[in-house]
Structure prediction request, 210 residues.
Amino acid sequence: MNESILVIIAYLIGSIPTSVWVSKYVFDIDIRNYGSGNAGATNTFRVLGSKWGSFVMLVDVSKGVIATSLYILTPFYLTDELARTNFMIILGMASVIGHIFPIWAEFRGGKGVATILGMAIAIQPLVAVLCLVVFALTLITTRFVSLSSMLAGVAFMVLILFIFNEKETMYRLFAIIVALMVVITHQKNITRILNGTESKVPLFRNKNKA
Prediction:
């Protein structure tokens, strides 16, 4: 299949506004009008509880995995490892852009962290698992999804650049961009954490029991 078409499909997959649809069709609200106003898993945890926050996160991660794996539809990338990795990054980034600017939700989406994790799972599962460990430990310890996301993003860069010492230039650049993007998109969260006003997620409690 043509690469350009696959990139468009990856964007459309990323554009699936999981939290918006859940909030509208399950709770009859638009999650972008509550909490931080963000249409991502973090705000879903905050507004709708851990049950629906976990569901949204799972789907958003899956979007990254599926979109990044679309390379299998083009035989050329099955035999050329370097070209495959580069194309997977392009596909994954298309899905992340779709998540942040979803065509299905007035181009008002989330921050892309969960979808980036999906990319990592598809490209290098071990790194993704280690980032998940960092995310989970931080979340359990602090109950700040934002801080957990930022530390996982920074961990991704450290793992790619220094621990696994990946040689592929595009992959290294991607790791740096991910870390910067995660921190930049969480500037308001950083301010709230420093001011002591950042909301903590209700772990192990769903919205109906809140």
Observations:
- The chain has one domain: 3-202.
